[in-house]
Input
Amino acid sequence: MIFWALRDIDFKVPRGKVFGVIGRNGAGKSILLKILSRITEPTTGMAEIRGRVGSLLEMGTGFHPELSGRENIYLNGTLLGMRRRQIDRVFDAIVDFAEVHRFIDTPVKRYSSGMFVRLAFAVAAHLEPDILIIDEVLAVGDLQFQ
Output
């Protein structure tokens, strides 16, 4: 039996607007966000996105576990098409927000889930993507972060 999680979807989100996707478990929300984030290719059809996309989907998406927090910041910035000096300008703000100063040169696989998601969020927000896609990943972290 074939199950189509997404079918006949067509929508536009105007610049500067917030758009939410709500539905039951298994409705295809996460698959849609992965397609929009260019992580997964659609089986049929296409997704047209204009601008740089930053994503916070599942824990670990976009970060290499063997690389340090510092290296992951630069890797993600590079993947977004930023130059090193652009990343340098926001680097301290990312580390300050994430509160990982002591651990910035530690591989992120050694971070707690809260540290990891704070750094991922700080990177996504400070690297100034044109489009920021967020799934349920922000349900983790400490109370202050949430």
Summary: The CA atoms of residues 77 and 87 lie 6 Å apart.
